[in-house]
Predict the structure.
Amino acid sequence: MRHLLMALLSMTVLFALSGCALEPVQQPAMTQYQLVLPKSESSTSGVVAPNKQPILLLQRMTASEPFNGKAMYFSQGEYSLGSYASHQWVAPPQNMLTGLLNQYLTQHAGLFVVPGGYIGFSNYSLMSHLNSLMLLDKQSQLLLEVACTLKDNRTGKVIGQKEFKIESSAIVSPEGMVKASSQASLQLASEINQWLIASLKAQPEP
């Protein structure tokens, strides 16, 4: 009788453990964020006809690993890099930055901007590369670094290269990172626009 009770007890424990192992693990819901340019004053130039202004081919931005995915990265110190478990970008940031840059340059650069993949004639090409986009916890800052190259498509020569480093105050949280990233994106687009205009003005007339 005693052996029978022990056997039944052992079977009960095994069934209980099996039931626990089969229970689904609850994953935290994933929250996604999108980069959006803050509202700014409209440019008086607007979109111009391509036969009146130079055509700029805006190539899709590339990115260094690990910033070429949807993860939102933060750093808590030197050589320390982590990502939020339940928060991510709705798309890789370089893709969103390409769209924002297209929007800004179309409004402010006085150029006819066409996207990468355009097979028609274009005077210039603008290539860009995302080096980093992360929240610096200790400094309460957002760091955005992008390198740009401007090429004259008529000669094939590079006429300008520059690295842009944007630091923006940020609340240390996913939402704070999103807000600071949008502000930094506006500053980045403005600085690229100014550099682009200055670089083209320095070129001799064709």
Remarks:
- The chain is about 30% helix and 35% strand.
- Helices lie at 2-22, 93-108, 174-201.
- Residues 174-201 form the longest helix (28 residues).
- The two ends are 104 Å apart (CA to CA).
